Design the sequence.
C-alpha cells in the first residue's frame, strides 16, 4: 500500500502534468486561430485571382497564342499531390491520398506523381509507385520562392510537351473542423469557350496578356 508521502508525490506530479497540458492546449489553440485567420483571409484573394486568371486567358487570343492553353491528345498526365509532413491531423492526409488513388484508377494515360510533403510521398513509395519529383512541404509562412520551384517544374514540363495534362490533389479548406480533398485541373488553362464562362471584365494589359501568362 502506498504511503502518504507517495500519494502526495503522485498528486503533485498530476498537478504538474495538468499545468503542462494546459499550456500546450493554449499554444495549440492560438496556432489554430492563427491558421484559421490566414485561411479565411486568403480565400477571397484566391477566388478573385482565379477569376482574373480566367479573364486573362480569355483575353489572350486562345491556344494559338500561348502554349499553356494548348490542348493535345493525352499521352502522359502529372498529378501534383500536396500533403503534410506529419500525421496526427485526423483524416487530412488520408483523404487527399484516397482522392489521389481514385484519380489514378480513373486515368487511361500514364500518370507521374509530383509530391509536396512527406506523407503522400511515403505512402505511394510503399505501394511501389515511382515519384517523378519530390518537394519539401512549404514553411509555416509560405514563401513565393517555395511555391515558385514547384510551379517552374510543372510549367516547364508542360510547355516542353512532357505532360499533356496537370492536376492538383489537395485539401480545400472549409472550416477549422473540415477540409474537402479535391483533385483540380491545372493545365491546360481553361479558355472561356471551354468553361462556358465569358470574361467578367474588360482589361487593358501592360504588358500583353500572353506576357503575363509567361511570367
Sequence:
Amino acid at each position: 500500500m502506498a504511503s502518504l508521502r507517495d500519494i502526495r508525490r503522485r498528486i503533485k506530479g498530476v498537478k504538474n502534468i495538468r499545468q503542462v497540458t494546459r499550456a500546450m492546449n493554449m499554444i495549440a489553440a492560438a496556432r489554430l486561430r492563427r491558421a484559421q485567420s490566414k485561411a479565411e483571409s486568403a480565400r477571397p484573394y484566391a477566388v478573385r485571382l482565379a477569376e482574373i486568371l480566367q479573364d486573362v486567358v480569355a483575353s489572350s487570343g486562345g491556344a494559338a497564342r500561348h502554349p499553356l492553353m494548348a490542348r493535345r491528345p493525352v499521352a502522359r498526365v502529372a498529378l501534383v499531390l500536396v500533403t503534410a509532413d506529419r500525421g496526427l491531423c485526423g483524416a487530412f492526409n488520408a483523404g487527399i491520398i484516397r482522392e489521389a488513388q481514385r484519380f489514378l484508377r480513373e486515368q487511361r494515360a500514364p500518370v507521374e506523381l509530383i509530391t509536396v510533403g512527406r506523407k503522400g510521398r511515403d505512402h505511394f513509395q510503399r505501394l511501389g509507385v515511382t515519384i517523378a519529383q519530390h518537394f519539401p512541404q512549404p514553411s509555416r509562412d509560405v514563401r513565393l520562392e517555395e511555391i515558385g520551384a514547384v510551379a517552374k517544374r510543372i510549367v516547364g514540363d508542360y510547355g516542353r510537351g512532357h505532360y499533356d495534362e496537370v492536376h492538383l490533389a489537395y485539401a480545400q479548406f472549409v472550416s477549422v473542423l473540415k477540409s474537402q480533398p479535391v483533385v483540380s485541373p491545372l493545365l491546360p488553362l481553361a479558355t472561356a469557350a471551354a468553361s462556358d464562362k465569358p470574361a467578367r471584365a474588360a482589361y487593358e494589359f501592360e504588358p500583353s496578356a500572353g506576357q503575363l501568362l509567361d511570367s
User: Anything to note?
Assistant: The mean pLDDT is 79. Helices lie at 4-59, 92-106, 118-126, 144-159, 192-195, 209-214. Residues 72-187 form a domain with the Pyruvate Kinase; Chain: A, domain 1 fold (CATH 3.40.1380.10).
